[in-house]
Specification:
3 copies of one chain form a homotrimer. By secondary structure, chain A is of the alpha+beta class. Chain A has 3 helices and 8 strands. Chain A has a 5-stranded antiparallel β-sheet, covered by helices on one side. The radius of gyration of chain A is 16 Å and the shape is elongated. The interface between A and B is medium-sized, with 31 and 33 residues.
Amino acid sequence: MTTQHEIQVSTQGRGTYDLTADVQSAVHDSGTRIGMCNVFIRHTSASLMLCENADPAVMQDLETFMSRIAPDGDPANTHTQEGPDDMPSHIRSVITHADLNIPVRDGRCDLGTWQGVYLWEHRHAPHERKVTVTITG
Amino acid sequence: MTTQHEIQVSTQGRGTYDLTADVQSAVHDSGTRIGMCNVFIRHTSASLMLCENADPAVMQDLETFMSRIAPDGDPANTHTQEGPDDMPSHIRSVITHADLNIPVRDGRCDLGTWQGVYLWEHRHAPHERKVTVTITG
Amino acid sequence: MTTQHEIQVSTQGRGTYDLTADVQSAVHDSGTRIGMCNVFIRHTSASLMLCENADPAVMQDLETFMSRIAPDGDPANTHTQEGPDDMPSHIRSVITHADLNIPVRDGRCDLGTWQGVYLWEHRHAPHERKVTVTITG
């Protein structure tokens, strides 16, 4: 039995957006007690991650890390049509995740206490992002 | 219902190889309308990624990025039996993906407009690579 | 048909721990012949990876790589409550994997010859880590 649900996220530009409640809600609505939940983002300049959900400083430090290894305006980049954050957004996406796969147990995503599901917008401009949640079980 | 299909890729050395059509074809042949598609590479010096599928400069810039953070011949590496690109290939594989998990909707992988499925060969020499496509639904 | 199994790992601090036999055993016990195996870690300062399983120097070089791009005590980090390895552990987790998804074929995870499943503890102190193995098929 497979259930699919779409989450639409209107981002305000670069930063992280907590999808945990939306994903848990999709799992609850599916009625699945045991199985798998796939979260998939249909973009190449925004990505997904499971990350510490308590201290906003973690997200700030992750931005600092990414800005150091894949800086905006890096003169090494040749793919620059959409601006200085175009290619860094693809790099950030490739080394994080387009899909997360979380076990469903007792009718919910069996996350650890400190794990949250986040969309990471890598572009500076606001974007409409589409995330598909697929529950099987 | 689970279907498995193997894709064999003869690489010409370091670079990316578009598997999107092969994966979509495996999903089509499986007859699955809704479910999940797992793409898995059975190697540790080549990997998979979902990436922008329109501008070849993206792939070139990704190579530049990887060459900067995990350069061939890095004197810090001790695992060098197979040459200067041996350990960098393992590093590149670990920070990208051995598996991709894509929702199947309406009988096809529900990729975004700009998403392609790529095998990334990290070794300079040509290799025979095996990729398993598993469709459940 | 979904089967879930939990693996408890008592780590001795930073380093890699081979889970391949535990995962294969869970697949065997499930009786699943064809399907998927998801391995999921319920933490944000330890992660999972598929990696070369023959030469311990690979793991040593991976540590060197991570220590270079996300060094302990990095003055750029502001999330430091739990010490100099706190934020680097989150970074290392985000750019590796919380979930691995491996095809099951002929009753076992269809890994390549050189692929092993590893838990990567990023904290220096010993920790109790929980890994969920979910087999569907």
